Amino acid sequence: SAVISQKPSRDICQRGTSLTIQCQVDSQVTMMFWYRQQPGQSLTLIATANQGSEATYESGFVIDKFPISRPNLTFSTLTVSNMSPEDSSIYLCSVEGLLITDTQYFGPGTRLTVL
Amino acid sequence: GDSVTQMEGPVTLSEEAFLTINCTYTATGYPSLFWYVQYPGEGLQLLLKATKADDKGSNKGFEATYRKETTSFHLEKGSVQVSDSAVYFCAQLNLNAGGTSYGKLTFGQGTILTVHP
Q: Where does the pLDDT of residue B30 fall: very low under 50, low under 70, confident under 90, or very high at 90 and above?
């Protein structure tokens, strides 16, 4: 079965710094997504990343804070910039259509703590 | 707008008990409906899916039926195990009239299930 991996799995960062999270898929996919799961909360979509085009951000999320790259069909990065404690969350990437069309599959997540 | 509402948790059951987790949705389009499960310290795993009214999704003993008349997709299992302890998320993916997705999954708030031996 296809595999989605994320790096790092967890990190503890100081406020004001930035962290780049990587998402790697072992097969080519068109649509990749980045979600945030705040402590004890549900998942919220940050942005959609399609290869060859600018990421599309959801309301409340901006490119300056969460820049995204999508250089090819198997890889994407999300950067959390100028972090504050409010950014402490689990960040998950997902891809659509790995095994079943119109279905999203999730990576294991990156647990970020900002001090 | 689109939304998903799950029953309040947490839910605590004894092993072999019957499980129901309620989920209702509001949608402007033609959603596919999902249940995802998140085991402690892990990411989300797809549990089951249904794409149209009266479809039943099933996996690992869990079932959910897409009820358009009640806009519901309740999760059930006849006999839970300790290993089913996890957080369960109901979600919808809105499809346009042509059947391709808009890509945005809308999640419910999650229901924590704890099963005791």
A: confident
* Nearest-by-CA chain B residue for A46: B104
One-letter amino acid at B40 equals: P
Residue A7 has pLDDT above 70, yes or no: yes
**Which of B38, B42, B44, B112 to mutate: most A Cβ within 10 Å?**
B44
> Which one, of A3, A19, A6, A27, lies nearest residue A92 by Cα?
A6
CA distances (Å), origin A70, targets A29, B32, B66: 11, 27, 35
Is the Cβ pair A94, B49 closer than 8 Å?
Answer: no
| The pLDDT of residue B7 | 82
Residues in chain A: 115
Spatial CB neighbours of B72, under 8 Å, sequence gap ≥ 6: B22, B23, B24, B25
Burial of B13 by CB count in 10 Å (0-12 exposed, 13-18 middle, 19+ buried)? middle
Residues of A whose CB is below 8 A from B100: 102
Q: Are B50 and B32 in contact (CB under 8 A)?
A: yes
Contact B47, B38 (CB under 8 A): no
Comparing CB atoms, the residue among A42, A102, A108 nearest residue B101 is: A102
Exposure of A29 in the CB half-sphere (CA atoms within 13 A): 32
A35 to chain B, closest Cα gap in Å: 10
